[in-house]
Amino acid sequence: MNRKPKVTAQTKQNLIDAFWDLYCEKRIEKITVREITQKAGYNRGTFYEYFTDVYDVIDKIEKSLIPSLDELPPITIAEDDIGMTIDMFMKLYEKNSKYYSVLLGDNGDPAFVSKLKNSTKPILKKAFSEKHDLNPIEFDLILEYVLSAMIGIMSYWFRQGKVLPAEDLITLIHELMENGVMSKLSK
C-alpha cells in the first residue's frame, strides 16, 4: 500500500522531468534509464516502480497531453464558422506548448500528431454532422487536411518564436480555411 502519495507523485514527476530534459536534447532511442535516474537523483529500481522503459515515460506524457472527449469544449458550427475550433486548438497548444513544441517538432514523436488528431476528430465530426450530410470518407479526409494544417501552422509558429500575435495567427488560419490558400496568395 502506498503510504506517502505526495512523495510518490513527486518522485514520479521528478523522473518525468528528468526524462523530459533529456528528450528536449536528443531522440528517445538515445535516452537510457541510467541517464534519467542519474539526472533525477534516484536509482534504477525506483524508475522501474513507475515505468517499464523510456517509451512508457513518453507514452504517459503524451496521454496526459491529449484531451479526452469530455475535456474538450462542445463545438457548435454556426454559419459554417470554424473559428471556435481554431481557438480551441490555440488554447490547447498554448497550455501545453512546453511539450507540444518538442513533440510536434523535428525530433518529436511522429505518432503524437496522429494521436492528437484522432482525439479531436470525433468532436469535430459531431459538430459538422449536425449541420451537414457529408460523405463519411470525404469528410474524414477533409478533417485530416484541416487538422494537419492547423497543427502544422501552430507548430511552425511556436518554433519561429510566435512571430505573429496569436490573434493574427488565428485570423490567418481562419482566412485560409474559409477562402483557401490561393485567395491569400493572389492578393
Automatic annotation (TrEMBL):
PROSITE patterns: HTH_TETR_2 (PS50977). One of its GO terms (molecular function) is DNA binding. Keywords: DNA-binding. It comes from the Bacteria. Gene3D superfamilies: Tetracycline Repressor, domain 2 (1.10.357.10). This is Uncharacterized protein. It comes from Clostridium felsineum.
